[in-house]
Design brief:
This protein is of the alpha+beta class and 163 residues long. Helix content is 18%, strand content 13%. It has a domain of 49 residues. A three-stranded antiparallel beta sheet has the order 1-2-3. It is extended.
Length: 163
């Protein structure tokens, strides 16, 4: 894989390895979640061996009594408290966006990805923050970069023992 990376870089490109994680214990296969099946890429893992947000975060807390997962919902705005220094609640559209409600919690994390987190902060403008939350610099969303993600297939006469 190193040779492929160097050859692509020599062409003037900037390859970057995709950060993927598997719960693979090669030193003790009996303790390994990953069974090295052939359906990993692009499919849900049936043995929960991918280190993704569903397995590492969501499923790890779903058993807690103070956690509720709501699907088919869209966060429309973050509503600040009276001082404008913290998020008091989250406005959410439910169903087919027919009605909205609010939810509150001790910690609010905007984890919507680069584009949608910026859009949410901008939609959350109020009297104290007319340009959107955390946007006193007027820079939220302005320097977003599109990261082209491509996959490469390399053919070589040199054997590649990578797994």
């Amino acid at each position: 894989m190193q040779q492929i990376q160097e050859d692509v870089a020599a062409l003037g490109y900037h390859p970057f390895p995709v950060p993927l994680g598997l719960k693979l214990n090669e030193s003790d296969r009996v303790e390994s979640k990953c069974i090295r099946c052939d359906t990993c890429d692009g499919y849900p893992c049936m043995v929960h061996a991918k280190s993704d947000s569903d397995i590492n975060c969501i499923r790890a807390i779903m058993h807690l009594s103070n956690v509720t997962l709501i699907t088919e919902a869209k966060v429309t705005r973050l509503l600040a408290n009276a001082t404008g220094m913290a998020v008091a609640c989250v406005e959410v559209a439910l169903g087919d966006w027919e009605y909205t409600t609010t939810f509150s919690g001790g910690i609010v994390a905007a984890c919507c990805g680069a584009i949608n987190s910026a859009a949410l902060l901008l939609r959350s403008a109020n009297d104290q923050h007319p340009n959107g939350l955390v946007n006193s610099s007027d820079m939220v969303g302005r320097h977003f970069m599109f990261h082209q993600a491509d996959a490469i297939l390399a053919l070589s006469l040199t054997p590649n023992p990578s797994r």
